[in-house]
Amino acid sequence: MMENALKGLQYFALQGAVDSIAPFGLGHINDSFLVQAEGKSYLLQRLNTSVFKTPQVIEGNLRALLAHAPELFAKHLRGTGGNYHEFDGEHWWRLQEFVPNSYSPNELQLNELREVSTGFGCFTAQFGSQPLEKYTESIPHFHDLHLRLRQLQAAVEANAAGRLESVLAEVGQVQQFNWIAARFDKLVDEGLPLRICHNDAKAGNCLLSKPDSRFLKVVDLDTVGPGYALFDLGDMLRSMLFNVPENRENLESLSFSKERFHAIVNPFVEACSGVLKPIEIESLPFGGLYMTYIMAVRFLTDYLNGDIYYKVSHEKENLSRARNQLTILELMASSMA
């Protein structure tokens, strides 16, 4: 893959010689590389077109984002063809400046929770008045729970990887929470408005300052498009409230922390309350249930299908992820009832 990365880098006119290029990060989908050239650092990414099938849509969304609020994002470099995404005949590539003295928090402290939440709240506020028609879903029906439940049912029926017998308990757990889909439908019927969302709002997609942990930038913009505010707040609750990796299975010591809950919810609301309607603010905590449930369904579906979507480091990683999300979902549901 390193040879491909060097080929992709040629489509961006960097000044001077490339000193080094190395794999970077632990993302589930795209391949990323840290590039050093003439004392500057860059992030080179190969777009996974098995997931993002329409690179032109992502290009259009990125152009709209950078034109409206460039200060929220890392600087992206246009390629030799004048686009942010360049095609080498096989792969699509993009290049952005590596934000100096920044980090994506891992084991989040309370102040880091507040800063990440503030960052995504600022994103929501900045794009509150943006016309929806300027943006297109990069993955159609990405957070469509009914679709994800149908996909799980299809995976159960096909049992393509021969794993169904080992996950009957998890399939049963999923079925116990299908009321979440009906509750979401009711919110939409009551007027929950669409708006521009990040649609993958987690700590890994937010950069903080190394010196003082202040919010700096929102990153990983491939999923940006129409959505509901509860998607972004919900994804933060799902991924940040309990402070454990998605693939950890031993969760017996977990407990619901009201302090962490409020450290996520309150800064988001404070940052974007001026654009949110009352029904959105009221529905934000429910977003935690919705997004945790949909991710449990997706991980379990991928496990049944033989791990064809998410990167895995071992055979049962998607199963561990699904069990993790189901445990978190049960804790949330019992604590937020």
Structure description:
The chain has ten helices and eleven strands. Helix 3 (110-126) packs antiparallel against helix 7 (229-240) and helix 4 packs parallel to helix 9. The mean pLDDT is 95. It is of the alpha+beta class and 337 residues long. It has helices spanning 2-9, 55-68, 110-126, 145-158, 168-176, 179-189, 229-240, 258-272, 278-305, 317-335, and strands at 18-23, 31-37, 40-47, 76-77, 86-87, 92-97, 102-103, 195-197, 206-209, 215-218, 225-227. The strands form three sheets. Strands 1, 2, 3, 4, 5 and 6 form a six-stranded antiparallel beta sheet that branches. Helix content is 44%, strand content 14%.
User: How many helical stretches?
Assistant: 10
Tell me, briefly, the overall form.
Answer: globular
* String of helices and strands: HEEEHEEEEHHHHEEEEHHHH
How many extended strands?
A: 11
Biggest β-sheet description: 6 strands, antiparallel
Oligomeric description of these chains: single chain
Question: What structural category do the secondary elements indicate?
Answer: alpha+beta
Give the N-terminus to C-terminus distance in angstroms: 48 Å
Q: Level of helix content?
A: 40-55%
The proportion of residues in beta strands is: 5-15%
Question: Low-confidence segments, ≥5 residues, pLDDT <50?
Answer: none
Mean pLDDT: 95
Rg over alpha carbons: 20 Å
